[in-house]
Amino acid sequence: MSTNMQHDWKHWRLRREESGLAWLDLDKADASANVLSSEVMSEFASVLDALDAAPPKALVIASAKPAGFIAGADIEEFSRLDSVLAARRLVERGWLLFNRLAAVGYPTLALIRGHCMGGGLELALACRYRIVVDDPGTKLALPEVMLGIVPGWGGMLRLPDRIGPAAALDMMLTGKAVDAKKAKRLGIADDCVPPRVMESAARIMALSGAPARKLPLKERALRWAMNGPARAKVADKARAQAASKVSRENYPAPFAIIDIWERYRGNALDVPAQDPSSLDTIFTSPTARNLVRVFFLQERLKAFGKDSDFAPRHVHVVGAGVMGGDIAAVCALRGMTVTLQDQSVERIAPAIARAAKLFERRHKGDQKQVRFTLDRLIPDPRGTGVARADVIIEAIFENLDAKRSLFADLEARAKPDAVLATNTSSLRLEDIATVLKDPARLVGIHFFNPVPMLPLVEVVQGETTDAEVLRRATGFVRRIDKLPLPVKSAPGFLVNAVLGPYMLEALRCVEEGVAPETVDAALLAFGMPMGPVELVDTVGLDIAVAAGKALAGEGAEPPRRLMKLVGEGKLGRKSGEGYYRWEDGKAIKGEAQQKGGKRRKPAPEPIPYGLAGRVIAPLLDATQRCVAQGVVADADLADAGVIFGAGFAPHTGGPMHYVANRS
Q1: Residue 186 phi, psi (nearest 5)
Q2: What is the pLDDT of residues 540-598, one digit of tens each?
């Protein structure tokens, strides 16, 4: 039996059991998810006052929302901070409040079901115990680095103490989430339980009187060693790993996290203002502002399709190549039945084999789930699934006549309300739709390779595409957990239209004698995730040539070296050689040369001044043209598309934002 306590709290509910156990549920008013806003945190301080006045035997903190535990701090509030002083006050409030929670005299337990992010995990780490619920939605992370900031409410102190510095730094520097089972395995959680027993398990553990979990003996010895030179060694290794991926100039937050852990015991408030890792530096950096901007751009993309109740159960994909096969696999992963069509079972088999490897990774070796997912992916060389499908996606080669012939057949056999979609990357929808009795049925759903990795999908509206068809297509993209970007039918749409001139300019530089490695190094230094020459090799040199107009531009000829390599069958990664030689899926850069009986890699060439700017310029121009021509609705959506579809350096806030703000 429990009793609800009457208090004037808007977001928290406190109830006490006769056993002396208290339950504190967070239910942020007028919100679908719990976030730690200023008001929520102020009320939490009031809750602790009430519990100080009448201490419980133990306290369980949980969420009253089905959407998860706590999504973190309120990013809207954070984005409105107008001074370093305001930022320091925000950090100080959370740091002191969670220290107060950690110091209470009664046992505390966080019962975590669903997302537990940022400040939510920092609150949980301040409790004596943590129980995670074995549910697909349970994810724990400290993702502040992805916003260009640091975990300032105790995460940099308590997570390394809880699971050791190596695992903790890995989580904080990547922002990656762990699921319930891994949280238990790492030691973040004391137990992982199924939903049906979560409250009983929480009750038993909270009232057990057991001491807080200790690190294993080996880890305790390592923690002791962290007070000496070993701490600097771990920090230096982490810095080197961070520097191999990003620069401190573009992304200061990862390096600040390492510094604050190493030198200030995880307390960001102790860092002097003049230190490059100080809150003053972090909160005033353009990177933090721009990454928060990118967060809101992502939220805007996620909002597309929310007005659609379309819930397709059966997807039919025509074309079992790399693109079509991966589209089919992603749909199967999201619980849909998928029929995959090509000319023969033999042509479909490689796609099924590739899907099986993807399912193994995503299901973390759970063979039962792998089998269930594979059972939903059905080879269908005769195309019998067309008649039952809710969504039909064409992913064959880029040939207008072939696509027209296919869609004439698909329309005749499909359900009247099935979505007919093309994955074309370069052909106009209007040209394909001429063979349809009802051209309004055709929509573009354009994925990017590799499909399982890249989040963006362009949803293409042709001149005749029906609004309801567009809405259903957008809803489908959200159902498979991708980010839909509405675009108008135009050559290359948005992403390919801006990537083509960018890659062409990079190849022109190579044509003029600049080493491919130097071109790529310049753009990596700018902040791109992959150099443009390596990108051409990854896409495939034959695909680059086939893209033709998008790559070469009006009246321009493809680079001679590109055509020569294609003529020799050197197509890039898939053939093992292009502009680079490829081994085990990796480009070999700076080939070692035989000198004095030893093979040595040549020293990298210095990057010519202005090289990155030269290669980026055509991309910026193309993005501005797409906005001016109405391919996307506005500059913000252009930035979102080029960041999430082309990997444009996120720290800049996007190409349009970069142009508007560069000096």
Answers
A1: -70, -25
A2: 898 888 776 544 555 567 899 999 999 999 999 989 999 999 998 899 987 654 445 56
CA 243/CA 255 separation, integer angstroms? 9
Peptide bond into 532 cis (omega under 30): no
Task: Tell me how crowded residue 583 is: count the other CB atoms within 10 A of its CB.
Answer: 9
E strand or H helix that includes residue 637? helix 635-646
Q: Left, alpha or beta for 191 (phi > 0: left; psi -120 to 50: alpha)?
A: beta
What the block records as the tokens of 506 is: 């990079």
Q: What does the DSSP assignment read for 315-355?
A: EEEE--SHHHHHHHHHHHHTT-EEEEE-S-HHHHHHHHHHH
Host H or E run for residue 112: strand 108-112
Q: 219: pLDDT confidence band, cut at 50, 70 and 90? A: low
425 counts as catalytic: yes
- Nearest of 322, 320, 327, 328 to residue 345 by alpha carbon: 320
- Residue 269's Cα: distance from chain center in Å? 29
Q: Is 458 a catalytic residue?
A: yes
- pLDDT for the residue 574: 87
- Taking Cα atoms as reference points, which of 231, 120, 229 lies closest to residue 169? 231
pLDDT tens figures, 269-287: 999 999 999 999 999 899 9
CA dihedral of residues 439, 444, 445, 446 (deg, nearest 10): 150
Does this model's pTM top 0.85? My answer is yes
The active-site residue out of 262, 316, 496, 517 is: 496
Q: Active site includes 651?
A: no
Task: Give pLDDT tens digits for 43-67.
Answer: 999 999 999 999 999 999 999 998 8
What CA–CA distances, in Å, run from 479 to 394, 440, 473? Answer: 18, 22, 10
CA dist., res. 234 & res. 262, Å (int): 9
Strands 139-141 and 191-193 turn out to be unpaired
Q: Dihedral angle at the C-alpha atoms of 440, 441, 442, 448, nearest 10 degrees? A: 130
* The one-letter amino acid at 348: I
Dihedral class, residue 513 (left if φ above 0, else alpha if ψ from -120 to 50, else beta): left
How many Å apart are CA 317 and CA 378, to the nearest integer? 10
Active site residue 250: no
In the 8-state DSSP scheme, what is residue 73? Answer: B
Instruction: Specify whether the backbone of 175 is left (phi greater than 0), alpha (psi in -120 to 50) or beta.
Output: left
Amino acid at 3: T
Q: Is the pLDDT of residue 495 over 90?
A: yes
Active-site choice (43, 122, 144, 458): 458
- The single residue of 446, 489, 505, 651 carrying the catalytic annotation is 446
Q: DSSP strand E in 606-649: where?
A: none
Q: Which of 425, 489, 534, 651 is catalytic?
A: 425
> Please, which pLDDT band fits residue 462 given cuts at 50, 70 and 90?
very high
Residue 552 confidence (pLDDT): 52
